[in-house]
Here is the input.
Amino acid sequence: MKKVVKFGGSSLADAEQFAKVGRIINSDKDRRYVVPSAPGKRVSGDTKVTDLLYQCEDLASAGKDFAGVLREIRGRYDDIIKGLSLSLSLDEEFEKINRMLSEGAGRDYAASRGEYLNGIVMADYLGFSFVDAAEVIFFNANGDFDSEKTNAVLGERLKTVERAVIPGFYGAMPDGSIRTFSRGGSDITGAIVSRAAHADVYENWTDVSGFLVADPRIIKHPKKIETITYLELRELAYMGASVLHEDSIFPVRKEGIPINIRNTNDPEDDGTWIVESTAKKSRYIITGIAGKKGFCSVSIAKDMMNSEVGFVRRVLQAFEDQNISIEHVPSGIDTMTVFVHEDEFVSKEQAVVSGIYRLARPDVLEIESGLALIAVVGRGMKSTRGTAGRIFSALAHARINVRMIDQGSSELNVIIGVDNDDFERAIEAIYAIFVETQI
Ligand code: ASP
Here is the structure.
């Protein structure tokens, strides 16, 4: 077995966390390739090293003194090195970083040093080889990730190292300069390394024991999702559930490598498995619930709309012309409704309305705001009778008015629109009927 293990910033925030990570890696010889983030927050209110590095660069590029912030960053690493009783010195590295920042090396270079230095410390602590991501992860001249070149070069390199640490978050441009992924991008590096190493599993270690059935800010101690498919995850992530960087799915999905989300602070918990497909049924018929507030609906009616060729396209054209992305479009025989994000829509509202009148000549047009959308997602819904019925009776019992219903054609999810004010209560009612009652 070959496992790639990625550790997030809170798992590596100080020496104590590093020691936990060391125990996790050493307890399983299959954990051969390690992808660290930069040290994160030690306590709430603390600053992540990545953010300190951005601060440094802001000062450097404004020609201001950044020595104080750089010293603070140095202090974070020295505390870890001392706490682990290592004899490593980062003198030379910090001299170089100081020089490069003074010479205008830029934001990406600055930010990447958090992972780079953590990789050096981690490799020293574990006795693993250090592979600089700049030598094995590539971007093309447009700044897009070059997956094929990376996969070829990284794959060859990993064949030469039995155990290695590859820092997350960055790679190199064709001219050798450093480029980072978007924030949280070490997750992507972990997935890229998993693909190149032909790993059996990509373990992503964080500070929660996986995905939860519902948002813990709404439901107290929600149950954990044991297994979720990539498609279900995509639906829930789109609706706001987040643990993993979205772009980290593609590299591993291509190779059919499962992702296992694990908790550094509770390593015995098996976490959540993210898989392509599974025969395992979700414990509760539904896999998860997620949602977002702040939508508007634009409802349009026109007699004989259904037989008017191109009507829907013309309506949608009015949104496209204003560069507004569309969330959902449930429709009836002579009606259709377009759901959009309120904050994106408000300033362009009148331009869209006049566009619709000009392009599609509707009989009636009505705008409503203050709507929330809730996605109830589950691969098991397809083969279970009465799921939608249970959702709606739960909402009716809770005296919640359902403003919209949209069942995706894949039968993987049901989207429900309710008033913003009913959002939390609606999620509570759906959670209760599926998870707590389990009838
Ligand atoms: N350190 C980077 C960030 O804070 C990348 C990561 O942690 O994944 O966004």
Q: What stands out?
A: Residues 302 and 361 are 8 Å apart (CA to CA).
